[in-house]
Here is the input.
Amino acid sequence: MAVLEADAPRVECPEHGPTVIQFPWARHDAGHTRTFDDQVAWLATQCSKSAVGELVRVAWETVGSILTRVLADIDKTVDRFDGLRRIGIDEISYKRGYSYLTVIVDHDSGRLVWAKAGRDDATLEAFFDALGDERAARITRVSADSADWIARVVAARCPNAVRCADPFHVVKWATDALDEVRRAAWNAARGGQNQSRSVRARARHPKVHPLKKVRYALWKNPEDLTAKQHVQLEWVAKHDPRLYRAYLLKEGLRHVFALGGTEGIEALTSWLWWASHSKIPAFVALAAKIRKHRAAIEASLEHGLSNARTEATNTSIRLITRRAFGFRSPEALIALAMLKLGGHCPPLPGRN
Here is the structure.
C-alpha cells in the first residue's frame, strides 16, 4: 500500500468560501486518489461486497462514499438525457419498510438514465425538472404501469408523449381476478368438506380436494403446463365451469397482447364485452378498470411498447441491492446502479 502526503493549504473560494485547495489527483474532500476511487468503483460493479473489501481494505460504507463521488464526477461530463425519446418508468423496492426507487430507462439504448428514492408525484417531477421542458417535449413514448401518480405527471410534463400501459401489469390484473375466483371456489369447497369432517376423520388418509392444487395450473401459460397440470385444468373444466371461464378470460386477455396492433385492439373490444357479460364480479370489475385505462392499453398494442426493458433493469437492480446491503443511504445504491447500468462506468485504471 502506498501513502501519498501533500500540504493542503486553505484558500478563499469566491463560490464556496474558505476551503481546502483542490488537488488534480484527488477529488474534493476525499481521502483517496482519483485512481484509487476509480478502481474501487470499477471493482464494486464487477465483484461481490466481500471481494471488494478484502482487496482494497476499506469499509463498505467508504465504498459507498467513493461510488457517490465517482458518479458525481462522471455526471459533470456526460449528458445522460441526450437523444432521449422513448422512456420506461417503473418503481422498485430497495429495502424493507416500503422504501422505493423510481427508475427511468431509455428504451433505445437500454440504459438506466435516472433514479431517485421515492415513488410519488414529487419524485417523478424531479426527473422532468432535471430533463427540462424543451427535452420533455421531445419525448414521444412513455411506458409504465397504470399508477395514477405516473399518469398525472406524464400528462402534465410530457405534452407530446403517448403513454403506453405495460402489458405485463395488465395481464397481472387478470391473473389477480382469476385468483380471486379460485379462492372463492376453494372456500366454497372447503366449507363443504368441513360439513363432512366426522366422515373424513374416520378415514386413515383423508383425500385432498383437487381445487387445492390447481393454482399453478391456472396461473401458468398453456405452453408451459406439465402433463399433470393439463389434467388438473381438465378437472376444473369438468367440475367448476365458472372457474374455468375465469381462466379462459385470463388467457383471452393475454392473447390480446400476443396479437398486438389492429388485431389486438379489435380483440380487446371483444374481450371487454365477454368480461362485462361473464357474470363473474371480479372480471366485470376488471373490464371497468381496463376501460378506464383503455387509451394507454391501446397505445401499447399499437406501438408494441412494453416495460420489459425496464423490468430487466429492475432485475439487475435487485441483484445490485443485495450486493449493496450495508449502505446507509439510497444515494450510494443509486450510484452503484448508475455506474453498472448507465453505460458510463469508469475504466479500470492503467488499462487501455
In short: The beta strands are 10-13, 17-20, 86-95, 99-106, 112-117, 141-144, 162-165. The chain has three domains: 11-79+328-341, 86-164+309-313, 167-190+208-303. The radius of gyration is 27 Å.
